[in-house]
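During the no-cost extension, the postdoctoral fellow (Dr. R.K.) reprocessed legacy sequence entries with the updated structure-token encoder. One reprocessed record is reproduced below for audit purposes.
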Amino acid sequence: MELMDIYGAFFGMQSLLAPEYIVPAMIFAFGLWLWRRPGIGFWAWLTPRSIWGHRSNRLDLILFGIGRLLVLSGLLTRLTVTPFIATWVADAIGSGAVEMSPWTLAALMFVVGDLTLYWMHRVLHGWSAIWPLHALHHSAEVMTPLTAYRHHPLMQLIVPLGYSAVIGIVSGLAIGVLDAGPTVAEIAGVNAFLVISHAALANFRHSHV
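Re-encoded structure tokens follow.
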């Protein structure tokens, strides 16, 4: 295991805490601070001790660490079923000759992925058997960007299974229809639209700001 692997698991572009996403958020926050004129310094306003030192945020930090260690261990990768389902679907539907640009395919995969997470979230709220696990995410007493990772370890194993299955189906359809392994527009190996979404203030979804 190399140092870059550790860095990538915690602060790579798949993580909301990547510098590529934190820096734009801080620039936006600085502009907001200037506009609001809260009467306190920028750093004290952005990272108040009452929030960042709160026991709820300490739990967020622990759960973030556990989740990133799961990523680092490769366990989540082994639970991903996307390649198997994609291959099965592609073989089942045959092949075609539709042309689709990498950017169009990236946009399609991004929208499908986002809708999948939305409906999975609804299921987590509506399924009484699994709600107690997901309830942890909604138990935060204060919010910071770390709250996005406030998930029970079991949820961090369950959700990727469902998500990767849907992405596998869509990938298989795309491979079959496009008659080849389609190329998706990426930035540093991450769907370009996901990078844009993360950079566009995603860190304020869970934030006192």
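The mean pLDDT is 86. The first helix runs from residue 3 to 11. The remaining legacy entries will be reprocessed before the final report is submitted.
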